[in-house]
Write a structure and sequence with these properties.
With 247 residues, this protein is mostly helical. The chain has one domain. Helices cover 73% and strands 3% of the residues. The protein has helices at residues 7-10, 17-41, 45-61, 64-69, 78-103, 110-116, 126-140, 143-161, 166-180, 198-222, 225-246; strands at residues 187-190, 193-196. Strands 1-2 form a two-stranded antiparallel sheet. A hairpin with a 2-residue loop joins strand 1 (187-190) and strand 2. Helix 9 (166-180) crosses helix 10. The protein is globular and about 60 Å long. The termini are far apart.
Length: 247
């Protein structure tokens, strides 16, 4: 039986649920704390670093065979990738309408709170706003989709799949993904103190869980992690568009 792990790591780990849990602990807990700190200080540079590390994890721990097994490979299903991208946009817009309908422009609306981190000036020309949107959308469609999908739908999902069914593994990686996103919204830093909006947080986490399952389905549909990455990129594009032009 082929081993997915590099020789250095195969001496200490098996590619199973214990390894997946180990990865979740060493990556998700620091990330959770870093995002909370960034929301407090306004310095989001460390978030880019944690996304880079997340993307690096499969290459650090897995050999070529292992990377192929988790889905790091090309996809010839371009129609599936386009569909995945479109579904991501649609779901992000659905979350926008739910938040707008329930909470308007208050900070109980997840996109309103997340939008604060973009530091969009209240007075800005259409040209400058378009440029800012393009820069934000481009980075948002690259860093977190690649980093999070290689990590959650890639190495973490596949390590759990070695011990349990793929369906159960998808539930676990989706739970980890959605709970991690409480640091982005749910725990809200406002007027120099932390608040927890229970019902909005539950809706947000539920949304993140569902979209995470969709990312996995798009990975399966396309036969590659590119399906999950494209769907995630579409979701981020829709979210950023909502924040810039719909709120």
């Amino acid at each position: 039986m082929k081993n997915e792990l590099r020789p250095l790591w195969s001496k200490h780990f098996k590619f199973d649920w214990k390894f997946g849990l180990f990865l979740l602990v060493i990556v998700c807990i620091p990330r959770f704390l870093l995002v909370l700190k960034a929301n407090q200080t306004g310095n989001y540079a460390p978030i880019g670093a944690i996304m880079f590390i997340s993307a690096l994890v499969p290459f650090l721990f897995l050999n070529k065979y292992g990377r192929n097994q988790i889905g790091i490979k090309a996809s010839k299903e371009w129609g599936a990738l386009i569909l995945a991208f479109t579904i991501g946009i649609v779901f992000s817009l659905l979350l926008y309408f739910i938040g707008k309908e329930l909470y308007g422009n208050s900070l109980k609306n997840w996109y309103e709170y997340i939008g604060n981190s973009y530091n969009i000036p209240e007075v800005i020309s259409l040209k400058d706003k378009r440029i800012m949107f393009m820069i934000t959308a481009t980075t948002g469609m690259i860093f977190s989709p690649i980093g999070e999908e290689l990590f959650f739908r890639g190495i973490v999902h596949s390590s759990f799949t070695k011990s349990i069914s793929e369906k159960k593994a998808s539930i676990i990686d989706s739970l980890a993904f959605s709970i991690t996103h409480i640091s982005h919204f749910g725990l809200v830093y406002l007027n120099s103190k932390w608040n927890f909006y229970l019902i909005p947080a539950l809706i947000w986490v539920g949304g993140m869980f569902i979209v995470s399952i969709i990312f996995f389905k798009m990975k399966k549909f396309s036969g590659s992690l590119l399906g999950a990455v494209f769907c995630h990129a579409g979701f981020n594009l829709g979210m950023i568009y909502s924040i810039f032009y719909l709120l």
